[in-house]
From TrEMBL:
Keywords: Membrane, Transmembrane, Transmembrane helix
Name assigned to this protein: Uncharacterized protein
Residues passing through the membrane, by range: 7-27
Superkingdom of origin organism: Bacteria
Length: 406
């Protein structure tokens, strides 16, 4: 009997150890299931889900991860956030979706509860905060009832007067309401298309992520899919670099456009000027002096913009114009002029060069009713041939023509 006592004690220790071991496994699994790293992320067709690597983020933003004491630009804060979460699964999770050269990095992290503070001190602080920055965020789609927001393609840089344009895309989503309880913040960085980002999110178990919140987001709907504004499809190709990004590259390359056009280029870089109309609004009397590289940068393919620009260049050139041509070129430069404005003037069949008439055809045909008849004309009457050799619409005596019969 005495010999059995040590064996019984040893057996009890083994059983106790087994119980503790099993309990630890169960507990560890429970803890794991409460963390965002347990969320299932599957790959859309043609893509592969892989562990996040520093090189993935660097490839997207096209710059290396800087040292911790380097300036905290928007870009560097994003890269550092990925590194932090990737190294500590208790704080969140990071995945990479890869398809050739296209990469989407997906980050999920719990965000704190921030209740609204309405004390007198808080109200005074908000009142004295000054004018807030304009919100440039864009809701591009609803994913299972939650807004997918595209952030502006800009990176704030400490010490600089304005943000720096970037080429990558930055998106955010949020499950929950921080004023009510804890939230799940979703951040995506991509060099791919909007459609690819939305497709990846449809392969994330957002329902489980929402269920991990103390107060799940009531807007979340697992039965809904991707809903876009006006049901327009999302872009299926990576976006082209913004004109601000191209302008920044031109400045970095040392291009010299002279005065005041280097100032204008800086304004394009800072997104103060975003199109041709914005440039002309700031430099209304200098359209003829706009350098060709600046016009090409802002050219959106509009025939109207080309017509007004080249009319100004022609009018200001050394070429000799008669009174009719000089008048027409000056009127084309006017941003409010249309084809209809020339109708009465051209009925007299004035002596006008073909290249000047071609510019008239590129103006909008405002003033012409939509219910019109097509009048094909093939006769050649003086130098007014271009206006009469295409297809022309005539309504109430107003003629508007399109080149090439279109």
């Amino acid at each position: 009997m005495r010999l059995l006592m040590p064996l019984v004690g040893l057996l009890m220790l083994v059983v106790a150890a087994a119980i503790v071991f099993v309990f630890k496994i169960v507990w560890d699994e429970h803890v794991f299931q409460q963390r965002l790293v347990s969320i299932e992320v599957t790959a859309p067709e043609g893509w592969e889900i892989v562990p996040y690597l520093t090189a993935h983020g660097e490839t997207i933003v096209q710059e290396p991860l800087a040292a911790p004491d380097a300036p905290a630009t928007t870009t560097q804060r994003l890269l550092r956030g990925f590194e932090t979460l990737n190294g500590d699964p208790t704080k969140g999770a990071v995945w990479s979706a890869v398809n050739g050269d296209e990469i989407v990095v997906l980050q999920m992290a719990f965000g704190p509860h921030r209740p609204v503070r309405n004390s007198i001190f808080d109200q005074m602080t908000r009142a004295s905060a000054g004018e807030s920055k304009p919100n440039l965020d864009v809701d591009i789609a609803m994913i299972r009832g939650i807004a997918l927001i595209a952030k502006p393609m800009l990176s704030e840089v400490p010490g600089q007067s304005g943000p720096v344009p970037v080429k990558y895309r930055h998106y955010v989503m949020r499950l929950g309401d921080e004023e009510i309880d804890e939230v799940v913040d979703i951040t995506l960085l991509s060099n791919s298309s909007d459609a690819a980002v939305a497709a990846l999110l449809m392969h994330v178990d957002l329902g489980r992520a929402n269920g991990l919140l103390p107060t799940p987001d009531p807007k979340f709907s697992d039965s809904s899919g991707i809903v876009t504004p006006n049901q327009q499809p999302l872009a299926a190709v990576p976006p082209a670099p913004s004109i601000a990004y191209i302008a920044a590259g031109m400045i970095a390359d040392g291009v010299d456009l002279g005065d005041p056009w280097m100032e204008a280029l800086a304004r394009i870089k800072s997104a103060e000027i975003t199109n041709w109309d914005g440039l002309i609004a700031l430099y209304p009397d200098q359209i003829a002096q706009v350098p060709m590289p600046l016009f090409e940068l802002l050219d959106d393919g509009s025939q109207e913009n080309k017509a007004r620009y080249f009319a100004a260049r022609l009018r200001n050139s050394d070429r000799v114009w008669n009174d009719h041509e000089h008048y027409i070129l000056g009127k084309i430069v006017n941003p409010d002029s249309t084809q209809a404005d020339f109708s009465d003037y051209l009925t007299g069949n004035p002596d006008v060069a073909d290249d000047v008439m071609a510019l008239v055809l590129q103006l909008p045909a405002e003033g012409v009713a939509t219910s019109t008849r097509i009048v094909p004309t093939t006769g050649l009457q003086g130098t007014n041939a271009i206006l009469q050799s295409g297809q022309c619409r005539v309504e109430n005596g107003v003629r508007s023509c399109t080149a090439g019969g279109n």
